[in-house]
């Protein structure tokens, strides 16, 4: 049985509840703070942005939350996702380690993002919301939300960073196929956007600006809300279906992981895979090393500070205690666009601070080298973000070879790279570089981060 | 059980042999002819192009051929592929019909093509061949062969139609990720290519020219062979794993199809799904209507002639009896590049001629309209080729609604459209047109088709 290539679950075996790690942490996570009063933010502070049900999940200490039936119905379009045993990669690396990867590229949008987009849209629909706004960079999150809105008949309006809107038209097309309305950001639809376009009609935009535009559109209409694709507790909660499925799948082949690695951008893919395994670890039922992998160009967990900061560049959000490079930090334009976030999910930051997980950073050239080895052995072309998890897996597998250890490694392949082939072309043609991140650049990023005792 | 969204097979349930329809046909198919002697082609006539094992399969009358273990091992990277019940599309169409679709987009290359690329490479490897050459248009076949060559350590050299090489760089990158070497065709690597470039340094190329270059490279080296991705008997044979799996999956939910529809370009996707069901029909175990769907811009089966013609534009191949628009026919540059072939698999042509299957043609705008409805309900963005099968399925489902018939419809979604988003952009922006195919254009295509009594 253990030489299976794909370990599948039937739909009837799909988990029917999400797992909330907050219930099991030895120390509760620090709360978000209202930026004016510096007091813990209340449900009302979020009410203009999110529906009540999601705010409740954001603040919940319940261990399990049932997945609504209509959400499960949409999940069934691609879930349970397969768990693969990487026989061919193991052979290529000549390692005694066993490598398993959980593959989320089977979703319609090609990544793990629909796991939270679908419930977010459903909860909004239940409260009579008719339209959702959001921001997107390369377009992974925007296309996932557009797909989810199409399932429940909501409008979806997306502000896409103008530079990406212009240079990567295919993700925009994908959003439009699912009925999404896409604007380049800055746009002339918001006051903030117009003010920026007045200064520079060719403004390239940024994720922070796009968030401001999406938020400002949402708060001015009682039937419109805003949706975020990572960082927040309720987003990580929805992603735990990844880890819950992986636990069931490994149990089918009688394995428990010795090492678990996942890439971290905002933290939702990592938390989604890792938190159910962390529950098992805290309960003493297994004892895996759990490792975050981030790019050296945006080393939030390995070189950032653990302190209160804003979630967005403009400083409009509540303050969150997290590992941060500072909301003014501008990472290099590396190819893993989804890992270019200055902060980190507060829950991931907290478990790192508690010593329950560890973190490393890997430069992108090593990541793409690993991705090519992976694609030629396992077939799947990975998105740039999970190439970090693959590179870390390869490091671990090679260490196992050198030490003669037959460890079980579990990682998350959170998306395919079909819309990222220009990045591969750059790598294959020798045009990809790793850039040194200096202390001065790090110091510059922390300007304006509030001093909170 | 029948309300499942995905009907899965475990790896242990994967079929272990391909089905050869030739064994069960009431009339044997007309043989290919040597173009010089007009006598039935012999194994020796193919020996410079293909390995012995594939030539044997091409001429075999055995009902079943075992799939080699190492081929099954690679198939396991994505097979068995899922069979979906299109609950959400049915609801959108308000039809009493039950719609099932077999999805081949889960393969590494994103289509059904690896089903034959993998065994073709394996059989070549067994006979000591070190390199395979092929042609590709948009790149679906070339990327599938590159993937398969990476699995067994063969070199892969691909001539890609120059116009596609320049305008669609992403498929080329995908071929290179898997280690393929890609040349624009015409190239200066072959005498034929050089002669064309001398006339026009910016020659856009054609599939016929690319075939000639790939063939001429293969025949001059004893360790190199050529590989073809559709049309031939052994290619359709390998694709029958699609239909064999679908039969098992439908049996799991207690269904037999009343209507089966598949898109036809060279015929391998259609044959792969349909032939196992045709076996069941010939044996009296079920009685589905089996329908080919082709584009109105390249209506081989509905407006072509059933006669002997060359497989390539230059007239180098053996003569095959098939439905053909003439090897001089130049179809409009429609978006379903994989369906722009002047001929049709001889086996598909033969079963149409025997009245065992039927054929219709659908214009591309209707196909993309159907694809948008499909993507918004089922999530998956289809490749342009299977949008024809989807449009035909929607026609059938609407007819069921109008007549109040609860038919079971089975179709093949033979690939995803992640690398075809420019076509969707053209459709969504209103720039896609259907062009009338005139009798004069059809007559022009038949020029030079030999008169054989």
Summarize the structure.
The first copy, chain A, is an alpha/beta fold and 453 residues long.
Structure description:
The structure is a homodimer of 453-residue chains. In chain A, 40% of the residues lie in helices and 16% in strands. The first copy, chain A, has 453 residues and is of the alpha/beta class. In chain A, the strands form 4 sheets. Chain A has a 7-stranded mixed sheet, with helices on both faces. A 4-stranded parallel sheet of chain A has the order 8-7-6-9, with helices on both faces. A two-stranded antiparallel ribbon of chain A has the order 2-3. In chain A, helix 12 links the parallel strand 10 and strand 11. The longest helix of chain A has 20 residues. The radius of gyration of chain A is 21 Å and the shape is globular. The model of chain A has no long low-confidence stretch (mean pLDDT 95). Chains A and B meet through helix 6, helix 8, helix 15 and helix 17 of A and helix 6, helix 8, helix 15 and helix 17 of B.
How is the topology of this model organized?
The structure is a homodimer of 453-residue chains.
Chain A lengths: L5 E2 L9 E3 L23 H4 L5 H8 L4 E3 L2 H7 L7 E3 L1 H7 L4 E6 L10 H13 L4 E6 L3 H13 L2 E7 H6 L1 H9 L3 E5 L5 H9 L7 H13 L4 E3 L6 H20 L6 E5 L4 H15 L6 E7 L4 H4 L1 E6 L8 E6 L21 H8 L4 E5 L1 H15 L8 H17 L4 E6 L7 H8 L10 H7 L8
Parallel strand pairs in A: 5-15, 6-7, 6-9, 7-8, 10-11, 10-15, 11-14
Antiparallel strand pairs in A: 1-4, 2-3, 4-5, 12-13
Q: What is the number of E strands of chain A?
A: 15
Structural class of chain A: alpha/beta
Helical element count of chain A? 18
- CATH-scheme architecture of the domain at 6-14 and 67-110 and 234-445 in chain A: 3-Layer(aba) Sandwich
**Strand numbers in spatial order across the main sheet of chain A:** 1-4-5-15-10-11-14
Shape of chain A: globular
